[in-house]
Amino acid sequence: MSARKIQIGQLWKKDGTAETYLVTRVYPEALSTIAVLRKSGSENENQLRVKVERTPAGQNLPGFSPAMEDDIV
Prior knowledge:
By secondary structure, this protein is mostly beta strands. It has one domain. Helix content is 0%, strand content 48%. It is built from no helices and seven strands. It has strands at residues 11-14, 20-29, 32-39, 48-51, 53-55, 58-60, 64-66. The strands form two sheets. Strands 4-3-2-1-7 form a five-stranded antiparallel beta sheet, with no helix packed on it. The protein has a two-stranded antiparallel ribbon with strand order 5-6. Strand 1 (11-14) and strand 2 (20-29) form a beta hairpin.
């Protein structure tokens, strides 16, 4: 599944686990867009940088899916 646009504050679930991640930053880098994710409830853990994929339906984070149906809009 993908979202029309990935935005700060969205929650995404890591595929294959029950871990939920919060999007804390989205920024352009060279010819791509990067999303910075932080594990929900774990402010002290390392953050993940994920390259945003562009799809015909919108944007996607590989290895993740939106945590709630409302995030797909």
